[in-house]
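This entry is set out below.
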Amino acid sequence: MYKLYYAPDNASLIVRIVLEELGVNYETCLVDRSINEQRGAAYRKLNPNSLIPVCLIDGEPVFETAAIILALADRHGALAPPVADARRPQFLKWLFFLSNTVHPDLRQLFYPEQYIGSETAFAKPHACLTRDRLGRHFGVLESHYGRLTGPYLNNDSLTLVDIYAAFCLRWPQLYPTSGLDLFKPDGHPALSRMLTALQERPAVIRSFDAEGIPAPYFLTPRYPDGTRGAAL
């Protein structure tokens, strides 16, 4: 049994989809962002960084999205090439590109005050530089997926990279809520092919439904309906 601490449309949804794809038993615990529960003492015992998600594995808290999903995939032998597989280094390259490069830049876009403080003079140049970097990141992903014969990183076989990438492409279409609309699927046909295939998977549909998020999920995505907790 695993226990996932989540908030709707947070990175915890990546973990939920992985758990659903693996077909394993798990339970969930809502972290109420409307009252900043993630900053409370109880949650900080699980993740001192106050970030979502946390997943209890064998009763011990694991944080960092890539660490959680890689541990789950390796434990259950799915969604990632085995350690000795020749495809493993390339898979890890893309997984850590998402977790170490793309996702942190998204956080800079969504929470600029955590990086530049209250100095308003820095806000516009910081936003422009961050958007430029993200645009290049999306171009790198589009170029790679455009060379594949199937929709996923391993062509017809879904991996953690595809699930993680899909959220890095969903979120900038919705957040910040002021509507920057940074990623445009129409301009990224290879990534759109992957997103189309992913959002039709039963595990994905179950996961989004559990968090009150209506379809479509990745192409012209929609916000959570608010019935399963606060996303922000």
Summary: The first strand starts at residue 2 and ends at 6. The first helix runs from residue 12 to 22. DSSP finds nine helices and four strands in the chain. The beta strands are 2-6, 26-30, 54-57, 60-63.
